[in-house]
From TrEMBL:
Residues 290-400 form the ABC3 transporter permease C-terminal domain. It comes from Neoroseomonas soli. InterPro entries: ABC3_permease_C, MacB_PCD, Macrolide_Exporter_MacB. The keyword Nucleotide-binding does not apply. Belongs to the ABC-4 integral membrane protein family. The chain crosses the membrane at residues 21-42, 286-311, 331-355, 375-393. The keyword Cell division does not apply. Keywords: Cell membrane, Membrane, Transmembrane, Transmembrane helix. The lineage of its organism: Bacteria, Pseudomonadati, Pseudomonadota, Alphaproteobacteria, Acetobacterales. Coiled coil: none annotated. This is FtsX-like permease family protein. It comes from the Bacteria. It is found in: Cell membrane. Its main location: membrane.
């Protein structure tokens, strides 16, 4: 039997019962659309999380002060202010895996520029902070180590702060005041967007550490060299877990922590955060894929049911074909082709609906969409296999009919 002739026959048989064919393909349609949307939105969300975490800095460890106990109440990580400027220097000097280690302090202040004002986070740190967190200037420049050690009153604005204080004007060379102290704007940072916690990373300004201590945040004998966190960037290719353990050991030594006491610091590995979020995304994708698989199963059962009905309705036609010389494999191929065409039509419409659905969900959720060609091919392939698998039994039943019995069928 010619393939084109068989295809025309399959399309003719499906067109003869258009509504029934559409309803039968609906399960395949829903399943394929769910597969496409699940993969596209899930992959887009995963990429967004990865980009957000990497915007904080690649191969980055954040060191916080340890937990403290007050009146029998245990405070969380960072409850103890026991990190110092010298701790960061020691970490960078004594742990070989480390590229830079830099302490920073941060506090919210009101900033004034002309008749405009804005409340934002002031981050005070040496220039190595920009290397650790991969900050770059879009306008102007970053301050230098010499300016930092000399406690120069220079400031770099985040993009959000620059917009709110200066609008569309170029702020480089202008002056702002932080706690009545004048600062010269020497640069504006390139945008980074939100971090994984949803905070705007561009709503911040950067000043040298010793400038903050002497002119803005103040210092006493107790906190003259205190820092809130230490940012540690590990060399590319080095084992972050090994570096983390070396830092813990060094901090225990520097802070004179006894062997039976807990660590004096808390270390956050951003790679662990990414791995946790990836695992959560995979779990959600697996759940949605399971729903899609159930839908494809239901659609496949629908195909089998309708093909069995079709075989019953066309029993006399099958008997006539067999009586005039058609081979059983021709009948088998005819009905298999009908099931395949039915499934592929549902799959093709499902692909289009899945693409539209993924863009809609992404727009509503604020996620990017990443449609992978292999996901589309997989969905179409699965729909074809569904048609073949569930269409085989009805097709075989048709092929095995006895011609005389079939001709007598009423």
């Amino acid at each position: 039997m010619d393939l084109m002739e068989a295809l025309r026959g399959a399309l003719s048989a499906l067109a003869a019962n258009t509504l029934r064919s559409i309803l039968t393909a609906l399960g395949i349609f829903i399943g394929v659309a769910a597969v496409i949307a699940t993969v596209a939105v899930g992959e887009g969300a995963r990429r967004q999380v990865t980009a957000q975490i990497q915007s904080l800095g690649a191969n980055l460890l954040i060191i916080w002060g340890g937990s403290a106990t007050m009146g029998g109440v245990r405070l969380g990580a960072g409850g103890r202010s026991n990190l110092s400027y010298d701790d960061a220097i020691a970490i960078g000097r004594e742990v070989p895996e480390i590229e830079v280690a830099v302490g920073s302090i941060r506090q919210t202040f009101q900033m004034v520029a002309g008749n405009q004002n804005w409340s934002s986070m002031v981050i005070a740190a040496d220039p190595d902070y920009f290397i650790a967190h991969e900050w770059v200037a879009e306008l102007g420049r970053l301050y230098t180590a010499e300016e930092a050690s000399a406690a120069r009153k220079v400031v770099i604005l985040g993009a959000t702060v620059a917009e709110n204080l200066f609008g569309e004007e170029d702020p480089v060379g202008r002056e702002i005041r932080i706690r009545q102290t004048p600062f010269e704007v020497i640069g504006v940072m390139a945008r980074k967007g939100q971090n994984p916690m949803g905070q705007d990373q561009d709503d911040a300004v950067f000043i040298p550490y010793w400038t903050a201590r002497r002119s803005v945040m103040g210092a006493s004998r107790a906190n003259a060299r205190q820092v809130g966190t230490i940012s540690v960037k590990i060399h590319e290719g080095e084992d972050m877990q090994e570096a983390e353990e070396s830092i813990r050991a060094l901090m225990r030594q520097r802070h004179r922590v006894a062997a039976n006491e807990p660590d004096s610091v808390s270390i956050r590995n951003l790679s662990d955060i990414q791995a946790t979020r990836d695992a959560a995304a995979r779990t959600l994708s697996l759940l949605l894929a399971s729903v899609a698989a159930v839908s494809l199963l239901v659609g496949g059962i629908g195909v089998m049911n309708i093909m069995l009905v079709s075989v019953t309705e066309r029993t006399r036609e099958i008997g006539l074909r067999l009586a005039v010389g058609a081979r059983r494999r021709d009948v088998l191929a005819q009905f298999l082709l009908e099931a395949l065409v039915l499934a592929l039509l549902g799959g093709a419409v499902g692909v289009a609906a899945g693409l539209a659905l993924s863009h809609l969900v992404a727009d509503l959720a604020g996620w990017p969409v990443l449609v992978k060609p292999d996901a589309v091919l997989l969905a179409v392939g699965v729909s074809a296999l569904t048609g073949l698998f569930f269409g085989f039994w009805p097709a075989r039943r048709a092929a095995m009919l006895d011609p005389i019995t079939a001709l007598r069928h009423d």
